[in-house]
Request: fold
Amino acid sequence: MTTKLRLAAPALLLLVGAVAACTPAASSGAPATSGTSAAPSAAGSAAPSVAASGSPAASASAAASPDTGGGDLASQIPETVGEVQMSATITDADAYIAANINRQLTPLLTAVSKTAADVTVATATGSAAGGANLFIDAVQVSGADATALLTAFQTAATAVPGSQVEAADVGGKSVVKVTTTSYTLAVYGTGDTLFYVQSTDPALVDEAIGVLP
Reply:
């Protein structure tokens, strides 16, 4: 029995040695990462915002409204007619056209291929000592001809019943006169402007026509 154990011992030792030689070394953990693989800083990679260079500053006056010449138009209305003091103001063209039908501006503008956008209006009023009112309206139609404007007015006014319409000469100026039971209206044209002169006193109308430019 003892002899058998002695013979088996060397064989057992050989077996244990063989097993130990075949067993792989234990893993030492996760592989080390390379120090050069770190991502660059996000802050360092942000591209700066670049303002456009060479862009000219916008001009505040680029879309300025054109000069309508309203001040010049108002200055063409006399400050006095005889003893009547006149006060002139610039008036909205659309409102004036709508409110003053007897000026015949709607058919007149159509006849000369113009619109309210082409119109500048200055109006003036005054009162005589005897109580008669005087109205002088200067209506400028940009790019139009005074003769064409006056002809278009006469044509439109003649088509309205209840008034007498005639061409006349007042102090050497050619006018179109409209006479009704309520007032006398004389229309005089020069350049691209019509002057409407209206009063209950026909003599005051003629006097005003005489001092117009």
